[in-house]
């Protein structure tokens, strides 16, 4: 389904993010996870896009498989890094042929270990250029073309410490034709609310989906700090995790509790969508729904509107 139709029919969206698995076993596990999460009736799911060639093929294969084997709407991430215009054109043509209707257009992080890689050789340096390019393509037999999302950073993107310039850059992506913004994970809702207000002041009127990642383990917390550069991990959360000592089970409970409270508060404050970074697991997301007292996203949306 086109993202504009999803927003039209869902006052609050609920979505799940996956990454392409590297082995057959991991792939089988992911489809089991997806079967569990399908029961929660997400508005859509999205699949990340890596820097290497084989990872990229895996994203494509996974997206097409989700489209063909489930009733989920699958959104593919796509990045500027390591791509010529002809390659991007070919990817979009393949997606259109497979009836993939939506793309999350990203700058992408430059690969760390790719020999001789020069960012200057990429067709596009910034996501707004990719948004414009995707919008200029035909998409799936629909005059609207592909639905396009972009990334937003409630706590700021480390590449642009000047927060006023950063907002100009975000506005440029929306003006280029983005239909929505999906945010980086954050642990303090105040950061999201402030970001939403700054977007409003900048004249950004598209839906903003809040990125939620429950902490599942101490290792996962360390990984979040490494991957989501600049993400603030509040002292209160750190203390709660430390209190768990060596109990992995307790850390997972603390993570789910924290994320549930975040979701509850976001729903109370009319968030347009919750986007769960699932790490290809279903347990934490399912528990959050459970603690919110609902069986699926439809019930959650109805309650959000109360
Ligand atoms: P851009 O919008 O291009 O911004 C990158 C930096 O450049 C920012 O600091 C911005 O302020 C600045 N900038 C933008 N335009 C200009 C301009 N015209 N002039 C000067 N500066 C400018 N990465 C992946 O590799 N694969 C994924 O699948 C992936 N999925 C993600 C999903 C979400 C929801 C989020 C939030 C991030 C994701 N990322 C992914 C990470 C993302 O690619 C990186 O954080 C990247 O550094 C920024 O991406 P962007 O799309 O915001 O890039």
Give the arrangement of secondary structure elements.
Elements: H1 3-9, E1 13-18, H2 24-38, E2 44-47, H3 53-69, E3 74-79, H4 85-97, E4 102-106, H5 127-136, E5 147-152, H6 163-175, E6 180-185, H7 189-201, E7 208-212, H8 218-227, H9 235-243, H10 248-268, E8 273-277, H11 283-291, H12 297-304
Parallel strand pairs: 1-2, 1-8, 2-3, 3-4, 4-5, 5-6, 6-7, 7-8
Bound molecules: flavin-adenine dinucleotide.
Put the structure in a nutshell:
By secondary structure, the chain is α/β, with parallel strands linked by helices.
* Strand adjacency order, main sheet: 1-2-3-4-5-6-7-8
**Number of discrete domains:** 1
Quaternary structure? single chain
Query: Might you state the CATH topology name?
Result: TIM Barrel
In CATH, what is the class?
Alpha Beta
Catalytic activity: (6S)-5-methyl-5,6,7,8-tetrahydrofolate + NAD(+) = (6R)-5,10-methylene-5,6,7,8-tetrahydrofolate + NADH + H(+)
Cofactor: FAD
Family: Belongs to the methylenetetrahydrofolate reductase family.
EC number: 1.5.1.54
């Amino acid at each position: 389904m086109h993202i504009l139709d999803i927003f039209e029919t869902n006052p609050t969206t609920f979505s799940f993010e996956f990454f392409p698995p590297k082995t057959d076993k991991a792939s089988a596990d992911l489809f089991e996870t997806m079967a569990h999460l399908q029961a929660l009736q997400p508005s859509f799911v999205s699949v990340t896009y890596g820097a290497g060639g084989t990872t990229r093929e895996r994203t494509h294969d996974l997206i097409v498989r989700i489209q063909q084997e489930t009733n989920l709407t699958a959104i593919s991430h796509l990045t500027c890094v390591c791509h010529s215009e002809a390659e991007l054109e070919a990817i979009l043509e393949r997606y259109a042929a497979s009836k993939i209707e939506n793309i999350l257009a990203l700058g992408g992080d430059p690969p760390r270990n790719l020999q001789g890689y020069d960012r200057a050789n990429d067709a596009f340096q910034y996501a707004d250029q990719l948004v414009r390019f995707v919008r200029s393509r035909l998409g799936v037999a629909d005059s609207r073309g592909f639905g396009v999302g972009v990334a937003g950073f409630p706590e700021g993107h480390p590449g642009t410490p000047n927060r006023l310039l950063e907002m100009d850059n975000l506005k440029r992506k929306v003006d280029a034709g983005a239909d929505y913004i999906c945010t980086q994970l954050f642990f303090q809702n105040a950061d999201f609310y402030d970001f939403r207000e700054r977007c409003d002041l900048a004249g950004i009127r598209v839906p903003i989906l809040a990125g939620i990642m429950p902490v599942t383990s101490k290792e996962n917390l360390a990984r979040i700090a490494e991957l989501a550069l600049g993400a603030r991990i509040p002292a209160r959360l750190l203390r709660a995790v430390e209190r768990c000592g060596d109990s992995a089970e307790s850390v997972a409970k603390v993570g789910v509790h924290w994320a549930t409270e975040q979701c509850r508060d976001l729903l109370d404050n009319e968030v347009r969508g919750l986007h769960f970074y699932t790490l290809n697991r279903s347990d934490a997301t399912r528990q959050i729904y459970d603690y919110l007292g609902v069986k699926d996203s439809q019930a959650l949306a109805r309650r959000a509107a109360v």
